[in-house]
Automatic annotation (TrEMBL):
GO biological process terms on file: glucose catabolic process; glycolytic process
Top-level lineage group: Eukaryota
Name under which the protein is recorded: phosphoglycerate mutase (2,3-diphosphoglycerate-independent)
GO cellular component term, pick one: cytoplasm
Reaction it catalyzes: (2R)-2-phosphoglycerate = (2R)-3-phosphoglycerate
UniProt cofactor(s): Mn(2+)
Alphabetical list of SUPFAM superfamilies matching this protein: 2,3-Bisphosphoglycerate-independent phosphoglycerate mutase, substrate-binding domain (SSF64158)
All residue ranges annotated as the BPG-independent PGAM N-terminal domain in the record: 11-79
Amino acid sequence: MQLKADIQKFIEQYCPPFVIVDKNGKSVGPIVDGDALVTFNFRADRMIMLAKALKYANFDNFDRVHVPKTHSAGMLQYDGELKLPSKYLVSPPKLTGHLVNTSQRKDSEPLHAARQ
């Protein structure tokens, strides 16, 4: 399947699941027990799904033939409440000066915003 040729306006958000296989239909790069993975993606929702697939035995958002025992870390922690992934390379940033905090300061002018 040639994704860009088969799907008009192909973008990552609508990419169907796929496996890269050899001429005999066998996966060329399966994740197996003992593998180490470093995951990263701009889209947090994709990374949370992948972290859940690697961590939770009862994950069922897509089919898994085998759930390998791996060592994994994310570039970032994408879900602070679920602590996913539990191991990550860059600490989550400390965010300050949020719009809501700034707009609620006593000395700030009221914020008026509109969308057309």
